[in-house]
Amino acid sequence: MNRPARSELGSHWNLDPNCVFLNHGSFGATPTVIREEQRRWQDLLEHEPVHFYEDLAEKFMEDARRALAAMLKCDADDLALIENATSGVNTVMRSLRFEKGDEILVPDHAYQACRNTLDYVAQRWGATVVTVNIPFPISGPEVVVERMMAGVTSRTVLAMVDTVTSPTGLLMPFEELTAKLESAGVSVLLDAAHGIGMVPLSLDSLGASYTTSNCHKWLCAPKGSAFLHVRKDKQENIHPLTISHGMTFPLGDTTRFRHEFDWTGTRDISAHCALPATIEFMASLTEGGWNEIMEQNHQLAIKGRNILCEALSIDAPCPDEMITCIATLILPADGASNGIPLHEPDPLHEILQTKYGIQVPVWSWPSPEGRYIRISAQLYNSEEEYRYLAHALRQELNF
Fold first, then answer.
1. How far apart are CA 325 and CA 378, in angstroms?
2. Which CATH architecture has domain 36-281?
3. Under CATH, which number does the domain 8-22+287-396 receive?
4. Any bridge partners for residue 372, and if so which?
């Protein structure tokens, strides 16, 4: 089978033409126009660095926060511009104080880097991380709500909830979970690494204590752009990982939260400066803007999953309503199944990459246990790319 072409919109990305790129979910991919926009900001910075940082940067960051706030339906002053969602989780967890015996709730589908953060902080304070098993395959979102709420006790003080899980690609019922947990007095840390640009987010009405999301993934912004949203009543206790001038700088007409997060030392803020242009450019690629982008990617992910399920004679592990723009399948058992450590490359991943030119993650996960393949769907992908992957899998798995 010949290597397929990307969609017509693929021309906006400078992706390797010899690679069938079905892994947008890992690090995203930035359109050429936005990469040029970022370089324009970098050129402006280097033209006169002192003027840029001391006279201009504050307004540029405010513009970026306002552009994000319009999309996230929240107050721009509640947003901090950070480098990635893992930093956002670390910022919250390492700012908070816990009592010995406090419980932190987390599903077993959590992203490992963020789970590591919970374990590290809990150990320092003598708190306990309570892991909730979420089955995979799963019949529906109600299973998640039932199991997560069953894990809440009188000692539960915080829960980390995903919008969309990284290993299993499940759209979590995060809105319902947030409402129930916060009403029960449990602060919610929403790990929305797969969030902005993938699912609609209305942060003020959502009401989570803390929300962090990567802009470099489904928003397609430059790498190193993410945000942390902290509800106003929680801001007093949250500080950036790097303490700098903002802790003592005179407040003026802003807040200590703003001062501390806006200046954490010299850094390249060009990725953040490019956010307004990114949001506008991506929206221009479809008639319906961001709503159409999210729906189009969702439908393509469903098509791709159906193609693979049919080719491999396997059932979908979750209903369509729990799929966004990524979809994970459990690979049929074979001699290599379920025994490959998470940090070792799966032989099938390497074969797909070297033999077929397909970039798609294949991994084994301990809980929920399984050997998985996860596809992504972005505007540059085409239906034929999933058919090509299905052909390769049939060849290599002897179907």
1. 7
2. 3-Layer(aba) Sandwich (3.40)
3. 3.90.1150.10
4. 330, 363
